[in-house]
Amino acid sequence: MMDKLAERKSLSVEEARYDVVVVGGGMSGLCAALASARHGARTALVHDRPVLGGNASSEIRMHICGALGVGHNRPDSRETGIVEEILLENAFRNPQHSYSMFDTILWEKARFQPGLELFLNTHMHSVDKEDGAITAIWADQLTTEKRFHIHGTQFIDSTGDGLLAVLAGCTFMQGRESSSVYGESLAPEHPDEVVMGNTVLFQAKRMPQPVPFTKPSWAYQYTQEDFKERSFDDITSGYWWVELGGSGKDVIRDGEFLRDELLKTVYGVWDYIKNSGMFDAAHLALEWVGFLPGKRESRRIVGQLVLTENDLVSGVFPKDTVAFGGWPIDLHIPKGIESKGAPTHFNHLDSIYAIPLRCLRSREVPNLFLAGRAISVSHVAFGSTRVMATCAVVGQAVGTGAAWCIAHRKSSAQLQQEVEDLRQLLLQDDCYIPGAINTEVADFALKLSSISASSWIPGGEPSLVANGVARRVGSLHNCWISAATDFSKESQWLTLAYDHPVPIGSIDLCFDSNLSRENMLSISESVMQKFHQGLPPELVHSYEIVLRNAGEVVHTIAVDENHLRHRVHLLPQPIIADSCTITVLSTHGDPHARIFSCQARICASRG
């Protein structure tokens, strides 16, 4: 029997070949894999957990933060692209705010994306290299007892801990650099090995009857003195400040020990909430406690450039900017909950900042891109870049870049030289790059004889749909905004006209999903109460596209129940037309029709 089992296992190695291999299925890795596949690269996504999303999954349940910042004090700065697509999908299909449903939405995005193969429960443990480049990874799938030998041309490390890069021999940073290394005002005077710690969250719910709680013997005991600098503003959800590790303990190698200590801490905190008499908690009961700690910081891989505090505050956007951030420089104190001081220091930034491609390319391995937490940044800069919405747009950037390398048979170094190609692809996919203009849209406008509309408000003229900027920036709307309308009685329209008939292959639309308002899932009732529930009122709900030639209707597309910001309508074959009219029939509640971008592509689109 044992011989047969050994024989079966020895024959269970499966060889697989892909253009792009993404390791790590958090929000960054998922966005990277989707972007790669959508741009035509045969892509593998290898993830060691049963669900996607990383810290945003049901296993950890942290909400997705980004450049909008603490208190949502930076208007029009929410991330777009794939992460916005996912969050709008969740708002549409998950009104009950279920993390299990969110897991399903993420799985569905990957599982049914053409060109993408998903490997869940699959742990990568070793790497093959040749001439300095990665050629393959080895990974074991725990649920099937299969071993995979996965070959690739381009690789993306979105493991969080930078494991792929470390196995490939990359130099990494860990701990805090001294202030003299990069000239950072927020860095300590002397270097150390301190990193931010891990957290276990919990959820509670109110019951119709009082629910007693008896502290387990192994849980820690806390008093009011322990929490003088901690806020209990929402006792139905866990607290990010329940944090341990990173000072005296290695958040990776001591992970199991830290998980146990965090459980002792969580149940001690819950005992304080239930039994101290300080809270209205008699009817509260624990519904869920995480057993997979959320990890903030471990390794950071050295890339072509190390992003620092000075880059975050400079206001400079290099020519190879492919993503942006804006979360405060959020530096948690050493020792976490074991410290009696304030748990973190929010160092607010005046504006969003650039993330250049050089920070996303390994310094030593030519075919390795970096994504997620482990990109090339200093510890201080990491205090901002680590949040998940920022990681997501970084992931989309490198996934698109890796696919470009495949499509053009070029290296990441050559991509660096031709980075404007990547920037334009990202803009066309509704990503935002501060200061950049979508030249495809701008070039399209030159081919038009006119852009007209049924009505508009001052500053919301119809010509703005072709200016190449798909969000409000400062006082500029960059958006056609109709006059206030009762959509139950009338509609509003926008028409693009050519001076002669042209073959139209696709219609690309970008609507307004209110980038000044958060759109996320959270276990915190107080956080969720700050958001508009459901889809943004400004978003177009129903619309119709009509192509005409010499006044005759030649093609019609009708859309109801729209819940996405970016829509690309591919036509089954090019349609000869001299005008394209988009009629907004309804919104999700706003009295104005709003369109940021409208482009009828003269040749078939990639979709």
Describe this structure in words.
- The protein is of the alpha+beta class.
- The chain has three domains: 14-175 and 297-428, FAD/NAD(P)-binding domain (3-Layer(bba) Sandwich), CATH 3.50.50.60; 198-295, no CATH class; 439-601, Galactose-binding domain-like (Jelly Rolls), CATH 2.60.120.260.
- Strands 21, 22, 23, 24, 25, 26 and 27 form a seven-stranded antiparallel β-sheet that branches.
- 50% of the residues are buried.
- The mean pLDDT is 94.
Descriptive tags:
single chain, about 600 residues, alpha+beta, FAD/NAD(P)-binding domain, Jelly Rolls, 3 domains, seven-stranded antiparallel β-sheet, five-stranded parallel β-sheet, 14 helices, about 25% helix, globular
Could you write a compact summary of the structure shown?
This protein has 607 residues and is α+β, with helices and mostly antiparallel strands. The protein contains 14 helices and 27 strands.
Assign the CATH superfamily of the largest domain: FAD/NAD(P)-binding domain
How many structural domains?
A: 3
Q: Counting H and I runs of at least 4 residues, what is the number of helices? A: 14
CATH topology of the largest domain: FAD/NAD(P)-binding domain
Quick one: how many beta strands?
27
The termini sit apart by 52 Å
Indicate the CATH architecture of the largest domain. Answer: 3-Layer(bba) Sandwich
Gross geometry: globular
Radius of gyration: 25 Å
CATH class placement of the largest domain: Alpha Beta
In the predicted model, the low-confidence regions spanning at least 5 consecutive residues are none
**Helical/strand content category:** alpha+beta
Average pLDDT taken over every residue: 94
Largest sheet: 7 strands, antiparallel
